[in-house]
Design brief:
It is built from two helices and three strands. By secondary structure, the protein is α+β, with helices and mostly antiparallel strands.
């Protein structure tokens, strides 16, 4: 019985260590994602945006203002949303991989993240 408890607690401490490593990996990945860029250009080609994989806007470039302010706002919003959606997908995959790679292979665990 004592052996079972010792093994059980030993595994608990090992999991805690793995979770700490996973947290550090996630932190490092978030920092790396600040240097991963997603660039999008509007369909009309007049507006380009650049965002980080952490979904921060880096740059907005407007070559020519297309029509009126409402048209500009609509095109800019659509282009930014496309870039941020792609950045979000990259971020999700990278953070999930960073966290799961340090944890034991428990069936269904990767679906939690």
């Amino acid at each position: 019985m004592a052996q079972i408890k010792k093994t059980m607690f030993g595994d608990l401490f090992n999991i805690k260590e793995k979770i700490e490593k996973a947290k550090q990996e996630v932190f490092d990945t978030k920092q790396r994602l600040d240097k991963v860029y997603v660039d999008k250009t509007s369909a009309c080609g007049n507006i380009s945006v650049s965002v980080t994989a952490n979904k921060q806007v880096r740059e907005i470039r407007i070559a020519e203002i297309p029509g009126n302010k409402e048209n500009l706002a609509e095109i800019l919003t659509r282009t930014l949303n496309e870039a941020l959606e792609e950045a979000g997908k990259i971020q999700e995959v990278e953070l999930k991989n960073a966290f799961v790679k340090h944890l034991p292979d428990i069936p269904g665990l990767n679906h939690l993240f």
